Amino acid sequence: MALTQVSSNKCSDGDQKVFEHDSSELKCKMKFAIYLPPKAESSKCPVLYWLSGLTCTEQNFITKAGSQQAASEHGIIIVAPDTSPRGCNIEGEDESWDFGTGAGFYVNATQEPWKTNYRMYSYVTEELPRLINSNFPADPEKMSISGHSMGGHGALICALKNPGKYKSVSAFAPICNPIQCAWGQKAFSGYLGPDKSTWESYDATVLAESYSGPELDILIDQGRDDQFLSASQLLPDNLIAACSKKKIPVVFRLQQGYDHSYYFIFSFINDHIKHHAKYLNA
Amino acid sequence: HFFNLDSIGVELKNSIKRELHCPVCEEMVKQPIVLPCMHSVCVLCAAEVLVQRGYPPPELPAEPKTPTSSPITRSPRQTRRPPPKTDRLDRVIRTGLLCGTHPGRRRKDTPPVIMLFPCPTCGKDVELGERGLADCLRNLTLERIVERYRHTVSLGSMAVMCQFCKPPQALEATKGCADCRSNFCNECFKLYHPWGTPRAQHEHILPTHSFRPKVLVCVEHEQERLQFYCRSCQRLLCPLCKLRRAHSGHKIMPIALAYQTLKEKITKEMNYVFANQDSVQAQITQVESGIAQTEEQLNQCVSELRSVLAERQGALAMLLEGARAQRAGALNAQLSEKQSLLENAGLLTYTQELLKETDQSCFVQAARVTHNRLVKAIENQQHFSLSADPSFRHFQMDVSRELKALSSMDFIQAPLAPVIDTQKTLAYDQLYLCWRLPQDSAPAWHYSVEYLRKVGGAGALWGRVLSEGSSGSNGTHCSWQRLDDVGGTSAVIDKLEMDSVYVLRVRGCNKAGFGEYSEEVYLHTPPATVLSFCLDSRWGLHAERVALGKGQTYARSVPGMTLLQAADRALTSCHLTSDLLVADVSITQGRHYWACSVEPGSYLVKVGVGVEAKLQEWFHLPQDMASPRYDPDSGHDSGAEDTQDCPPPFCFLTMGMGKILLPKCGASNTSTGPLTAPLPPRLGLCLDFEKGRLTFYDAHSLRVLWEGTVDCSAPVCPAFCFIGGGALQLQELIANLFQHC
């Protein structure tokens, strides 16, 4: 699969690039951002996958989060894909900001008219890593995953559903229990249908309750003044409870004064990259 | 992480060289292959050895396919280079032997020969597979290590140039690409491996002239990568090999798992060896510092001695000086006196001249005065005596003692083996152990007493001190119990089990540690719990003849005034008194033991038990020895009745003359004469109330002397009888005798 470079900017001694390709899972052209640290010139580097939240594209993270400095220091490649297939001309895809375009929810849809294109789960866990490993100096054994909000939900479920595939996982204000919140219910009923049992395999809290695999080390940062937290969209307590029961180590930090925005991500992204570096550079 | 070849010492480098050598040519391996016995040799050396052995020329392992064989992944400037020519290869070719890479000659016409390769490292022949050397995989990892080693060794020698820089700007290569098999400088590498294309995932290596294929491929299935590992055969398998029957039921795992497992294992083992080396090094360091410390101490001691010696020397020298000064002063005074006497010299000369005078009256005239003067001079001389003692008798030194002490100056020795005092050591209610150190032993700060109960009863073991008691001689028994930090030279061990043999030993401890153990002493504990009692002095009828002392545990029989007076009147007939002493406790049940010492010079003493009521009865009607009504009592009816229905109400043994009379049960002793035993220093008695049996022992060895019966239908108490003079000491409880903490 050929990659075409869309842009390239030198940043923190490395290169922030954006590529475009034809996706076989999503059946459309997809863009992704990739940051290559200076270390990539001389040896293969581990990869951190960043999944963005509702309404984002591959641009928001690389322009607002300020992750390049830490990535450069720790020698980590950061790949940030888009949040949903684009330009598929599906009816209703642009109607809401929390369903359809920009709101892929990182599932493989089973319902029409979404099931042909909306296969973000397979894209993130299979097609994208394959692409990265064969076209960049990436160490195929060293992968980690992180994300924000809907992307946090995506990161958690990818890690819980693929024990051993990711060396570490972290999230900013993730949607922890989509089955129980308005966002999740709207998206899942649209993509997966009315049968709630099919929703469970994409819910981080439910997955944590039945997780068995190598030990995961989860880092979650949550702004205390996050409006969506108070609107019961995020429900981190449910996830924490499930993890405590299963003895999955979780570090949950409630950050005083912070909200849901990229300013919050900017403030703590260094900690997260350091967390991942601990495992990726081991 | 591999050895950092850049920063290791020469010795280590040589050690590594040995790891990288081919056992055949003894140089660094070139294109090594792995034999079935796991040893690596150069592929050409292997071929040569086989040819020399007489085998037909072997097929060499083929060049495997690599990612560089597809155009899109190959570097644009890849040139297919011929394999490097060496003398050996030429020789092999020249003698008409085949090289396996020759196209079109894959299969041989002759049937496959199973070849035996003499492995120099194993020292024996190894069987090669059907395809001979071609069955052996190349040891790419070893090649890479040799490459890296060579690189560090030959750093500074001929530089490798970038093959892609446009002249005139040819730069030195900073890296090689294993997939493109070329060398690049940084810029050219980036140019030819753009990110976002498949070439971006090529493997960086150090610049080199000899590229080797990146991966191992199966010898049988040339296109297949070796993705599996068979643990049972210890072989790498490709997916097709895995399906073979030869591996059915074998433990096969994916190569990633084998990689991980083996990596972890050898990392752990390597760390263990490092740690071990470290620990040995640490111990060596400890020993060295210990020695340094001890040397330091020794030097300090000696320098202390030196300074004291210098001090003494100074002090004594000062004393001498003082004496000298004092005497010199006195003598100086006399010197001037003596000088005045020298004035006599003039007088003497004058006298000599005077004596030449022949005229008698002139002579007398002058000589008169001279005579007086001479007398005076002589007087002075005679009274002269030195006012100071010229002798220095008081200032002689005898340093023989100090010399002896100094010459025997030595490191502190541990105390010698203590000597156990067998007279004072005894077993009763508790064990009492008493010892002393030999004269020439170093002093001990404290002692450690060890004791051990030997399983089994007193039996026939004698309580002698055994020599060189080794704990292993009697098979296994439980470990020694210890009493540590015993000050003084005695110890008490309580919480004993009755009717057992205890082994005890002791050793001293001082700064030098523990000394040797004493010899082991065997102590027998009494067969029953110890009964503690005193002699009852209530019955005061014979108070004038029996003196009780020492807390009512000692009794002495004396004649008493009455008998003294009676004996004064009598000459031929005599009165012997029989005085009974009773214990202040009586026994109503169970088994009890007590011991006593009868003074050897006692006249006649009886020791035993009796029914309390019966003894009381007797007491109030004292039986007189000389009275004909008195039946001699020896503890049982002698000869009067052979069969006895009930045991007598008393049981005694009689002792005197330093012997004990041992009565026989039965009437058959008259021919041999009465049986006696020597009186032991301590006598033990054990009463079994239920069985009505009284046993007499030598209290030290617990050897049974005699056993008798006694009627135990009523309370029974220990009793003693003095006939004539004598003395007896009850054994007191060790617990009461020795206060210990």
UniProtKB/TrEMBL annotation, chain A:
E.C. code: 3.1.2.12
GO cellular component: a single term: cytosol
GO MF annotation terms: carboxylic ester hydrolase activity; S-formylglutathione hydrolase activity
Cellular location(s): Cytoplasm
Function: Serine hydrolase involved in the detoxification of formaldehyde.
Family of the protein in this entry: Belongs to the esterase D family.
Protein name: S-formylglutathione hydrolase
Organism (species): Sinocyclocheilus rhinocerous
Name of the gene this protein is made from: LOC107724032
Automatic annotation (TrEMBL), chain B:
GO molecular function: zinc ion binding
Keyword Iron-sulfur in annotation: no
UniProt xrefs under InterPro entries: B30.2/SPRY_sf, ConA-like_dom_sf, COS_domain, E3_ligase_FN3/SPRY, FN3_dom, FN3_sf, Ig-like_fold, Znf_B-box
Protein localization: Cytoplasm
First-listed, main subcellular location of the protein, grouped into a coarse class: cytoplasm
GO biological process, one term: anterograde synaptic vesicle transport
GO CC terms: axon cytoplasm; main axon
Protein known as: Tripartite motif-containing protein 46-like
Organism expressing this protein natively: Sinocyclocheilus rhinocerous
Organism ancestry: Eukaryota, Metazoa, Chordata, Craniata, Vertebrata
Gene coding for it: trim46a
